[in-house]
Structures are given as C-alpha cells and as structure tokens.
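Bumping my old thread because nobody answered last time. Still need a sequence for this structure:
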C-alpha cells in the first residue's frame, strides 16, 4: 500500500485531485497522470462501495495514494473503506473535537482506537501481509477531517491538536455556504477562516488542505500555507473539455 501520512505530516506539498465519477478508468487516469494522491469521493461522487473496489485497484497499481472520502462521520463506512484498501480517509463536516475524536478512533485498531480487525481483507493483501498491515496501519493511515462550518473553524486549534488527526481540510463550498457567503472565497470572513485553520494546523504540527477549482487559485493557496492541495475533479475536467470542444466546433462553423 502506498502510504502518504509521513510525507503529509512533514508538510511536503502533495498534489491531489478528486474523482467523483465513480469510474475506475478516470481514477486510473488521475493516478497515472502523476498526482501524489487521488480522492475517491463517496460523499458527493457517483460511485458506491462496489464501484470503489475497482477504483482502489486501479489507483493501487500506480505510485499514487488512494484516499477515500466517506459519506459521513460513520465508523461503519470508515471500517469498510479501510478494509477495502484506502490509505487514508477524509471525513466531511467534522465540527467539534468530540466528532474529530470519533474519527481518529475509527481509524485505528485497539488500543489506540476502535477499528475492528480482520486478516482477510484487500487492505492486508488478502492475508498475504496481514501481520505487516496490522502492525503498520495505526501509524501509516492518513486521517483528514473537513472544516466546513464556523463552529469547526472556532474549534480548529483543539481539533488539530488531537492525536490521530493529520489534516484539517477546508471544504470551500460548504464553509462559504455555512458562513452565509456562498462561493465568496475572497470575502474577509472566509479569508479569516482560512488563516485560522492553517495556523491551527501548523501550530499543532499538522497539515492544512483545501480543494481548489481553478489553476489560478493555486499560488494563493500555497502562500496561505496549504500543503495537502487538490485541484479539480475528473467530472469537472471532462465537462470542461466537452464544453470547450463544442465551443470550438460552433466557433469554427461561424468563422
Ligand atoms: C466543499 O467544498 O465543501 C468540499 O467538501 C470539497 O472540498
Ligand atoms: Mg463539503
């Protein structure tokens, strides 16, 4: 398994992208493109757990690290995606330190957490390297909690300090919506939230992450101090490519 936690905690800049089509082909494409990590999205993506398996197989045949966003802060689904071979889990809408504690516990086997153990899982090579996986999993699996409300921003220092929380990840769409300033990512209130989350992560020795929609947003995110950064998604890129092709055809016909 391509673990990435140590690189993330060292605040190495790691480049990611989102896969929301539920497709093993675009997941493979993203991974082969060379992204450090690929996010397979079970919160808003099209795929279900059955579609996740071929996506994980596709990504794990490349150097990229597969990270799964679960639908909710649900230890049952977290256990399933970890057993299927996710090298990290992103949990949406984590608003309080207690909710973050539940995430961290679900990610780890006892005595550090409450994850149930089985040897015959895809994560442990169907048992071929179960002992090694069981030994390393608690230290190597990446835990990403999303900051998507003002309450989560206010609690960011306490959440970041929790053992087992590795990345505070801003969901710009939800955070701006919950702040009452939908998509206003330049608004002082949103910028203040960004600064507070990045500072909380840095002060706790953790990483800060964000999903960007356009290449123009990258330099500011780097300047802000984000190191776990995703740009765009398979769905957005396919849709943008289709629009561009259609516009080129229509424009050529008018010329
Ligand atoms: C959001 O923007 O709300 C997301 O969850 C994506 O990062
Ligand atoms: Mg969100």
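Sorry it took so long. Here it is:
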């Amino acid at each position: 398994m391509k673990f990435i936690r140590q690189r993330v905690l060292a605040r190495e800049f790691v480049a990611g992208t989102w896969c929301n089509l539920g497709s093993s082909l675009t997941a493979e494409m993203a991974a082969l493109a060379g992204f450090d990590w690929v996010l397979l999205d079970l919160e808003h993506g099209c795929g279900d757990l059955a579609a996740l398996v071929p996506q994980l197989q596709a990504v794990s045949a490349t150097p990229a690290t597969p990270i799964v966003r679960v639908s909710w802060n649900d230890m049952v689904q977290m256990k399933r995606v970890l057993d299927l071979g996710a090298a990290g889990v992103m949990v949406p809408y984590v608003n309080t330190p207690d909710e973050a504690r539940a995430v961290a516990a679900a990610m780890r086997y006892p005595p550090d957490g409450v994850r149930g153990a089985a040897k015959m899982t895809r994560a442990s090579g169907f048992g071929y390297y179960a002992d090694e996986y069981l030994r390393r999993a608690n230290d190597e699996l990446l835990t990403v909690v999303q900051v998507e409300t003002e309450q989560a921003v206010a609690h960011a220092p306490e959440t970041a300090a929790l053992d087992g929380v590795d990345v505070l990840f801003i969901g710009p769409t939800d955070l701006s919506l919950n702040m009452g300033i939908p998509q206003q990512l330049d608004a002082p209130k949103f910028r203040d939230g960004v600064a507070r989350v990045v500072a909380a992560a840095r002060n706790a020795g953790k990483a800060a992450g964000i999903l960007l929609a356009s290449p123009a947003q990258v330099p500011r995110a780097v300047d802000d101090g984000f190191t776990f950064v995703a740009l765009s998604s398979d769905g957005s890129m396919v849709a943008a490519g289709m629009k561009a092709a259609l516009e080129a055809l229509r424009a050529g016909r008018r010329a």
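The chain has a mean pLDDT of 98. Let me know if any region looks off to you.
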